[in-house]
Structure of AbrB/MazE/SpoVT family DNA-binding domain-containing protein:
Amino acid sequence: MEIRKVTGFGNVLIPKAYREALNIEVGEKVWVYMKDGNIVISKIQQDQVQQIVGN
């Protein structure tokens, strides 16, 4: 667990160790949603991307 600061634009840096563990690459999209009063950031799986863009 790490503490991160929210920037004036609302950005939050995802720690490198987490990006590497989930294989999140530059330019990829992630899900951001609320669950039980918490913000959750989740990697979008390839099959989910295809459903979203309709390919």
Summary: The two ends are 36 Å apart (CA to CA). The CA atoms of residues 21 and 33 lie 20 Å apart. The chain is about 25% helix and 20% strand.
